[in-house]
Amino acid sequence: MSDTVLPWLQSPKLSLNSVNYDDIALDYDVIVIGAGIAGSCAAFKLAEAGFRVAVFEKEAEAAQAGSGNQQGMLYLKLSPSLTYQNDLLILGFEQTLQLLQQLTQQGLLTKGVDWDDCGLIQLSKSEKKREKQSELAQIYPQELLYSINQAEASRIAGAELTSGGLFFPRSGWVSPQAFVKALLSHSNIDFKALHPVTQIESAHLSPESPLWQVTVDQHRYAAKVVILAMADRVTELAQCDSIPFTVVRGQTTTAKGNAGLSVVVSGEGYIAPSKLINGVMQTTFGATFHRHQPAGNPTASEHVENIEMLQMSSPAIVERLQLDNDHHNFENSIGFQSLEGRASTRASAMGSIPIVGPIANRERFLERFQVIRLDAKAIPEAEVPWELGLYLTTAHGSRGMITASIAADILRQYIVDELVEKDTNIDLRANSFKSYSQELLSALHPNRFYYRELRFNQ
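User: That's the sequence. What structure does it adopt?
Assistant: Structure tokens below.
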């Protein structure tokens, strides 16, 4: 990487084929901790690169917690400013679509059952939002998005909507559990459920040859590289216990019945096209947003919140699903009594930017670079105290269906030393994306939090 890049926002060079490993009894090349969307994407990318990968999950099945909803949106919340956030979302969107198509071609997913690029409408409910959407429509090609009025939105959706907005013709929905299961079926991946990790320890063999011991109950596994993909639970491990997260509880609601939608609709909340589940047509919508609240069981009050958000997007759909909006009789309606729901937490970081990349030892980092407390522009000539071979992909929040795939590719390139530093040129027709801007990589880097501690004397 270029000498102009801040040293703590780079990545350590690894020598994973070193003779140092000849006498080491390795269980795997890579251990990924966490079998949600982020961990499964990372495992798949490295398995494709030829690594022997294990995925450890504390639950009895993969894709639980924030990755366990019935349907996830391929949702791009873009800004009229052409920033690295837009690069992250658009590149991630393209990579996710490619991955879905690849898994479908391999017979691991079924389009229309496990995922669908049916399209997505983002409604514009205010003048400010309409102005923003108008700017976006002028910036991006119609292949990605274009403006539609209320009549067009209702026609495309197959239900009367309360406004027009932006239409993303190649967006849609994904079943996270089916997606994760398909990724973990790779022949180079060993998925291990009921494997709660209690400790990880570094015992690197040389400055470029990492070695990690991962403890599950009383058993220890050895691997060259460890990837943490456990959302905010990464703070349970000593190496990451100071990373700040915002945790949000979200509840989705599933109603029996067919909403008759042809596309995903996103307004105050979202609603996906109905899906046949266990022989019954069901419709999922939501989701609530409550900061610093635990997951737990679904609540009637949050069902009400979701229905009220749906009402703002389409009273017609509320009526189709027999979700009476008479507040005096709301929870006694036929539709309401048959509702099911799912509550989970999602972890995000400052600026809603995921945490992706290698990480340093915090205590030694703060000591070696302490001059930054006095001079924020200082770049000390000190060696970055890397936790060699340890990487993170976490804090994807509600955007994991889009950002987890690009995060996985970035990790793969860090680990196999393929990162090419140049400005990202987004080509919506490209088959793959092999380079990322340094601005994007720096924004995602885990060490940004340690630098911030020094810069702002926290």
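Residues 419-433 have pLDDT under 50 and may be disordered.
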